[in-house]
Amino acid sequence: MLKAVFFDLDGTLLPFDEDEFLKTYVGLISIFIKQFGYDKDLFVKTLFDGLKEMYKNDGSKSNCDVFWDTFARNFGEEALINRPKFDIFYETDFLKVKAICKDNPLAKPIVDFCNENNLITVLATNPIIPGRGTIHRMSFVGLKESDFDYITLMESFGFTKPNPQFFIELLKKFDLKPEEVIMFGNNEVEDALCAESVGIKTYLIDSPYYIKDKKEERNFSIIKMEDVIGVIKNHLEK
Q1: Is the pTM of this model over 0.85?
Q2: What pLDDT sits at residue 238?
Q3: Number of domains in the chain
C-alpha cells in the first residue's frame, strides 16, 4: 500500500541544468563575499571542500555544521563571525539563479494530488545549500514549505545522496517500509540507485536534465513529468 511519495527538487520538480546552476551560484556568491575580504580562490576551494565533506557526512552532525567546520579550518575560527551575514545572500543575490531555471507548471498539481490523497509528501533534495536557498528554489515552481510533510534541509539533515542512509533516515522518520514509498528524481545514481538500494521503487523523469551514471549503463523506470500523477494513481490502486 502506497503511503508516501518522495520528490527530488533540482532537475526534477525544478528544471535546470546542474552545471549551469553551479556556475551561476558560485559566480554570485563569489561576488557577494568580496565585502569580507576573503581570497576568492580560497573561498571557492572552501565551497568544494565543504561539499566533499557533506557528501562524506555520517549523520553525526548536520550538513550545515560540517560545512562551517570546513570553512573554519580554511579561514580560521574568527571568520565565523561573518556566518550570519551569509543569510543575506540567500535572501537577495541568490534569487538571481531563477534566471537559469525553467518553469514546471505540473509541479504544484502533482504535489497537491499527493496531499489530497493523504500521502506523506517529502521533498528529498540533496541538503547541500542553506535551507532558505532550498525554500526559494521551491518557490520558483510555485511550491512552499507547507506543501510538504518534510524537507531535507542542510541545517537539520546529516546525510546526502547517494548515501543509502539518506533514504533510510527518511523511512525511519515516518516509520515507513520501502515498499510503501515511491521516489521521483532525475539522477540515476543519486536518486534511483540510491533509493532502490534500500528497496524504494524509483521513477526517473525523462527531460534534458536527466543525469546518467557515467560509470555503467543502468536500467531504471523512466517516465515523463506528465505521467507522474498516473503512476501515483496506479500505486494507490494496488
Answers
A1: yes
A2: 81
A3: 2
